[in-house]
Design a protein that fits this description.
The chain is mainly alpha-helical and 701 residues long. Helices cover 56% and strands 6% of the residues. Helix 2 packs parallel to helix 5. It is globular.
């Protein structure tokens, strides 16, 4: 090579480096976050930044993997297993921002970016899991695990890493690896489309009411919210959407049966109308692809594959667990339905009780039996006071304090950010709270993280945790007043947030909520128990106008009515789990109509007549998009755990610091660093049984 050629090449390299630096500097996702606690600079991120950042992050992650593969030293836990866990941090940061915002603040452009990004990420993941040289190193460490003197967390990481490779196709033949790649790529595309269709169908409907008489029975708070929504949309009258803070109360209180039916049908027929957002073929295809993947890996069905890494362990054990609870719940549910039917007749109802009648007459019956109406409670649960109350509970149990910080960038004006500290003043996390429905947000409520906790080079990197919900919005007439259900939902998601914020692990893949799916709901569901403790409610639950504490008799009504229709609600929840298991225990591809499949599965536990034109599966995001495939039973499984665990709080005092500290040390801080049953027994001193749950629900004396 001549000197001239070398000079030209040198100039080109310098120019390329400058160009790359400018590209990085101009892309906030690729720059070092110059924000409080290195939080995402949401105010600087634009749609056009995502794909270049994702491509750069994937490229960087590939270099990190190549460095592990090409390491000439003998494979060790440190240079292979730990190095793998520490790789791809930038990619995780970019992906977390992209996918979290696609759930909480999306639009058509961002949705298309996710469609483009998902197969790229799947391809990258497959390139790692199907890399024979990388697996060779991982396997070498695995085979000498007994001589490595690893601590429990290190052993768990090694076990999870090795089995992760095997479960993602590392032992497959070359031809089967290509089949696996194709299946996983198509699944990543279909699950995104499934979710986007549900969101489009939810946002695409509104019940526009122009006749004031059609508002009969509705609480004033819902009427005001509907008027406010109509005004925002430039319409006269009132608008009811399919967002649950509107849908749920309308079905409970609207006297107009025809409008209840219209709204029910709109909600129940989402993605089931044969239009561009129809999910029937997508749901079936997802289930069949999962079966194909499981078969490739040597499993008879997808549930067997999934449950290998769950507390329940096998489909047979899950089905036995569900059957035990169905046997305890179904007789009670049938009695409860009969009771509502008879009550409706007494109220002058004629004809058959349909699903759009159920909430309406159930609410009236509950009010008649307990003189209890959820609307009575709402004035005592002003959102701002509830936030104070939830933070206070975290302080009483774990010594945490929460400081609002308006300098932390947020992705929407509704979002508030807080710094979280423990009793010693140690920084623990950033917590984002995002409470109100909007068009760019998926339905429901969830906790997520923009960054998980981990340790790197002796530094404890603290998490960035977010709670996203769809609670009752404030109007121009009153503040946000939560229903009791919304209050308990907040407690639930805050329990997940505590799991993330109090994590004290070394490895990000084991920290926070990275635990078995049927264990992850314990920290969340145990928090719901505090919702009916007067000692706790007195700390914050005051009438937003008078300042009066929530009356004892009202709390007693909540407690007395807590098991109202416990059988019905148990069967309903178990039905979701049964349907989930049915889709994921198929041993041959489903060719039947999706609706026929669903009806056949649920027929034996139906307590209300089915409604033609509606279908649950096609909008069941938890199992077809949200990570609960073959795992929805986990909510009930965790109810058994939380009922048993809260007994200890009840025995020692609900604010007992010793019990709380044990729960923090043995459950919340450990993440997935040890087997969950060992962690549970360390806290509780025993394995759980269904007795505590059945007694709490009134289904067992």
């Amino acid at each position: 090579m001549t000197k001239l050629t070398k000079s030209i090449l040198g100039i080109m390299i310098v120019l390329l480096a400058v160009s790359c630096k400018e590209k990085v500097d101009s892309n906030p996702l690729l720059s070092k976050f110059d924000t409080p606690f290195q939080t995402p600079p949401f105010n600087e991120i634009k749609h056009e930044h995502y794909m270049p950042a994702l491509d750069s992050a994937i490229s960087m992650a590939r270099h990190e993997i190549d460095a592990i593969v090409n390491n000439r030293q003998e494979p060790t836990f440190e240079n292979t297993i730990e190095a793998l866990d520490q790789s791809g941090k930038l990619l995780a940061d970019v992906s977390n921002i992209l996918f979290n915002l696609n759930e909480a603040e999306t639009d058509s452009v961002l949705q298309q970016i996710v469609v483009e990004a998902s197969p790229k990420l799947t391809d990258f993941s497959n390139d790692i899991n199907l890399n024979p040289e990388l697996f060779k190193r991982v396997k070498a460490v695995w085979e000498k695990r007994d001589s490595l003197k690893l601590n429990p967390e290190q052993m768990m990481l090694l076990d999870k890493t090795y089995k992760g490779f095997v479960r993602n196709g590392a032992n497959l033949s070359d031809s089967d690896k290509e089949k696996y790649r194709a299946i996983s790529r198509e699944l990543s595309e279909l699950t995104v489309r499934f979710n986007q269709n549900v969101l489009a169908e939810t946002n695409g409907y509104k019940l526009h009411i122009t006749n004031q008489a059609d508002l009969g029975g509705l609480p004033q708070s819902l009427i005001d919210a509907a008027a406010y929504t109509a005004k925002q949309q430039g319409l006269d009258g009132w608008v009811i959407t399919l967002d649950y803070p509107m849908y749920g109360p309308f079905m409970k209180y609207a006297d107009n049966r025809e409008l209840r039916k219209q709204l029910y049908m709109a909600y129940g027929s989402r993605c089931f109308k044969g239009n561009e957002y129809d999910n029937q073929q997508i749901a079936k295809r997802i289930a069949n692809l999962r079966l194909g993947m499981a078969n490739l890996l040597g499993y008879p069905n997808y549930a067997t594959f999934v449950l290998e890494n769950r507390m329940a362990e096998t489909p047979e054990r899950v089905n036995e667990f569900i059957a035990e609870l169905v046997d305890a719940s179904l007789p009670a549910a049938r009695i409860e339905v009969k009771e509502v039917e008879e009550f409706a007749l007494q109220q002058g109802f004629k004809g058959n009780l349909e699903r759009w009648d159920w909430s309406y007459y159930s609410e009236k019956l509950k009010n008649a039996k307990y003189s209890y109406n959820e609307e009575e409670l709402k004035p005592y649960f002003q959102l701002e006071k509830v936030i104070e109350g939830v933070f206070l509970l975290a302080n009483k149990l774990y010594g945490l304090t929460f400081l609002p910080n308006s300098n932390i960038p947020v992705y929407h004006p509704d979002v508030k950010a807080y710094e979280v500290y423990d009793g010693s003043g140690r920084f623990m996390a950033v917590l984002y709270l995002d409470f109100f429905p909007r068009e760019g947000k998926s339905g429901g409520a969830w906790m997520t993280s923009f960054r998980s906790q981990y340790r790197e080079k002796g530094k404890d990197v603290r998490p960035l945790v977010s709670i996203v919900a769809n609670f009752t919005k404030p109007t121009d007439k009153q503040p946000s007043l939560l229903t009791f259900y919304e209050f308990t939902t907040f407690l639930h998601e805050f329990g997940h947030a505590l799991h993330g914020m109090l994590s004290d692990c070394t490895y990000s893949s084991l920290s926070g909520t990275a635990v078995y799916r049927d264990f992850v709901e314990l920290p969340s569901q145990i928090m719901e128990n505090f919702a009916v403790e007067k000692e706790y409610l007195d700390q914050f639950a005051v009438h937003y106008q008078t300042g009066e504490k929530i009356p004892q008799e009202l709390v007693q009504k909540i407690i007395a009515s807590r098991n109202f229709q416990a059988g019905y609600f148990s069967v309903r929840q178990l039905g979701f789990g049964i349907l989930d298991m049915a889709w994921h225990t198929i041993t041959k591809p489903v060719n039947d109509d999706v609706d026929a499949f669903e009806k056949k599965v649920l027929d034996s536990i139906e307590v209300l007549p089915p409604v033609k034109g509606t279908n649950m599966s096609v909008a069941f995001g938890h199992i077809f998009e949200g990570g609960y495939a073959a795992g929805y039973y986990g909510y009930k499984w965790a109810e058994v755990l939380d009922a048993d665990a809260f007994e200890l709080f009840k025995q020692k005092g609900i604010f007992n610091r010793e019990v709380a500290q044990s729960f923090r040390e043995n459950i919340l801080s450990k993440g997935g660093s040890e087997h969950p049953m060992e962690l549970y027994k360390r806290f509780r001193g025993q394995e759980p049984s269904t007795d505590a749950l059945l007694k709490r629900s009134g289904l067992k004396k």
